[in-house]
Amino acid sequence: MTTELLKREVTVSSNQAPAPVPASGDTFGRIGQLETRLARNAREIEAAQAVRYRVFVEEMNAQLSPEAMSSRRDMDSYDAFCDHLLVIDHSIPGEIEDQIVGTYRLLRQDVARANGGFYSASEYDIEPLLARHPDKQFMELGRSCVLPDYRTKRTVELLWQGNWAYSLKHGMSAMFGCASFSGIKPEEHAVALSFLHHTVSAKGEWAVSARPELYNNMDLMPLEAVNTRQALSALPPLIKGYLRLGAMVGDGAVVDRAFNTTDVLIVLPIASISNRYINYYGADAGRFAG
């Protein structure tokens, strides 16, 4: 689920608080008691980090930095300048920080350029992709996670409502980011990885490859040996969701030992998003607006 990686583990020191996000215009949608919006202050970002810790460490057995493990928050230097999309359940008693049940980390190209680059660049050679599209603005999706009790259609819809509204607001042309299979043995996902390789590989102007020193071949089975139904069943829900939207997958998987995952790079040009989903969420992202 992580995107969001042989990740650049740069720890946020205790006196380096994440930058607050302005409150105006940051609420993107509501369904019942669930709301999706951007984090508005350091406390909410820290609460999102705690949700990430619960999923990545307690559920997926990630091994984070000593400071992250002791604070029980998944955190790194990117948190300070990324935007943090939240799903909030207002029916949960307590403070707003207790109500965060899902999160995505969003990084726009102009912000990435001003702060040392995209997070995914630690695993994938994305510079040639960016160079082929000088007229486009890219947005990185990372650190996607939802608490177990909220892995429902409504939560996913709100996360995508938020991503879609955010991309429209900032004039984004394409989204990308890493999505993960559980475990660090690509061969255990041979059917699914081979299916992705043969059917949805990013080609031509959208081609992108894993860094050579991290590259793991995804072509583990010939196409005729791949059972489509079995492959689709083996795909993590997040990856299936991306494919339904019209996403492609980069060349090569990357083993992320710290997060106990095998990662693939998702590439989703805005122009490729299925009209069915644009119509559902609204061309102006108004489907679930308040």
Structural commentary:
The protein is an alpha+beta fold and 290 residues long. It is 29% helix and 21% strand. It contains 9 helices and 11 strands. It has helices at residues 42-59, 66-71, 109-114, 127-131, 153-169, 190-199, 228-234, 237-245, 275-281, and strands at residues 27-31, 34-38, 83-89, 100-108, 124-125, 138-146, 174-182, 209-210, 248-249, 254-256, 261-269. Strands 1, 2, 3, 4, 6, 7, 9, 10 and 11 form a 9-stranded mixed β-sheet that branches. Strands 5-8 form a two-stranded antiparallel sheet. Strand 10 (254-256) and strand 11 (261-269) form a beta hairpin. Helix 6 packs across helix 7 (228-234). It is globular, with a radius of gyration of 18 Å.
Short structural summary:
This protein is α+β, with helices and mostly antiparallel strands and 290 residues long.
List the helices and strands and how they pair.
Elements: E1 27-31, E2 34-38, H1 42-59, H2 66-71, E3 83-89, E4 100-108, H3 109-114, E5 124-125, H4 127-131, E6 138-146, H5 153-169, E7 174-182, H6 190-199, E8 209-210, H7 228-234, H8 237-245, E9 248-249, E10 254-256, E11 261-269, H9 275-281
Parallel strand pairs: 6-7
Antiparallel strand pairs: 1-2, 2-3, 3-4, 4-6, 5-8, 7-11, 9-11, 10-11
Helix pairs in contact: 6-7
Feature tags:
two-stranded antiparallel ribbon, disordered N terminus, 9 helices, alpha+beta
Instruction: Look at the structure and give the mean pLDDT.
Output: 89
State the major sheet.
9 strands, mixed
Q: What percent of residues adopt helix (DSSP H or I)?
A: 25-40%
Strand content: 15-25%
Total number of strands: 11
